[in-house]
Amino acid sequence: MDYSFKESNIPTILVIFGATGDLSRRKLLPALFDLYENNLLPDMFKIVGMARRGLSDEDYRVFAKEAIEKEKKGKCDEIILDKFLNYLVYHSGDFSTPENYKKLSEKLISIEDSFGACSNKLFYLAVSPSFYDVIFKELADSGLTIPCNQEIGWTRVLVEKPFGEDIKTAKKLDETLGLLFKEEQIFRIDHYLGKETLQDILMFRFSNLIFEPIWNNKYIEKVELILNEEIDIEGRGSFYDRIGALRDVGQNHILQMLAFIAMDNPKEFNAEEIRKNRASVIEKLKVVPKHNLQNYVLRGQYDGYKNEDGVVPNSKTETYFKIKAFIGNDRWRGVPFILESGKALDKKRAEINIHFKKMEACLCPPGVEQPHSNVLTFRVQPDEGISILFWVKKPGVEMQLEPKKLSFSYKDEDAKRITAYERILFDAIIGDQTLFTSTKEVSAAWEFITPILENWDDLELHEYKKGATGLDDEL
Ligand code: BG6
Fold this sequence. Notes:
With 475 residues, the protein is α/β, with parallel strands linked by helices. It has helices at residues 5-8, 22-37, 57-71, 78-85, 98-115, 132-141, 167-180, 196-207, 237-262, 271-283, 420-430, 439-454, and strands at 12-17, 45-51, 88-92, 120-125, 155-160, 186-189, 220-228, 297-302, 320-325, 337-342, 349-356, 375-381, 385-393, 401-409, 461-464.
């Protein structure tokens, strides 16, 4: 993996489909501005925003300025921001008209003329998945994805999850992609992979001798993978009600957390090996038995969800799930992996807890309940970092044990942290696919999730109050 800026310093054009949407406003434009501020964009760079709204270049710059200032809560250097805005141009048009792609192509050619060079091109689909097919097809038909030169001028497509809605639609989407583009051109985004703590799991596991030898079913009791949120569906009713929590974050973010925790050592630090090992552990997930799904899966919906805009009045969509999963390989056989996520809960908490087994015998003082267990926690957010809970003697004359934490937090570090979207955009520009999901990972994840979705209706849908900690029932 080469992160040298030199490599990324090739003239590049980023086309964003859905340039006025929520994702562009809240994540992409602020992340691109941050990359610019940190001098991590190529010298010759342009962002072409494409959407249906009729805006001029200047209107779009005003739109972007407001979006960035809002996300940065006013804390950005106006002079740098104004310079960044010069990178932006706007192309208005709907996504299904071939004529629009012809015009887009002319725009890209005129940008390349102004660079005086053939440029790399990235096409970012920040749109509802219902537009994927038509955009892929039009991109390919219009010739926009043909590189302008053999050596440089590659083209890449960036696709946001969800990749399909079940195994069947995901396969169809992949077939379409596979017909039009090569795998090395396809960057499937799961922004959790861009999170610092997730990447750190690999470094932590494979650079410290003290954990890897006990990273297996002999020493680990259970693993919890949690992505709980305080926010509710925030006005995304019509999208969310079709998708539900399991598709929204279970099929992707949580299974990627699991992959980093459970995968084998890739031995080589490159995209191919890391993606291969992530895929093979997801493939080893055991399909949850249909006949007693209730012993493995819980689902819930927050009180008031049915009144949200865009949600059907008798909706059975889950806003919460908990799954007990098992991995069928020698390392993990018998260890439960608890996957949990919910909206409108008491607090934002994305973390992974590795519960080690209790010591078979401990030097515990008489009368003290024994033995105790250690817990290693990867905090994905907020307060990214790692901590371990261990047991020590309580100071004083009595022989008593108490739990303590060894903890490390990224916020205490001097180094500048980058957001997941900055990371992802940067890696897409330099062409590193490590933090993007491969076709194998996507289909392995659907193979595990689809049978649960197919039997959802057999399960009780528990109602929970907004602000609850989750569903308490044990699995
Ligand atoms: C998105 C989901 O992929 O991830 C959202 O669509 C969810 O529903 C979000 O809120 C969580 O991401 P983060 O980075 O805020 O934890």
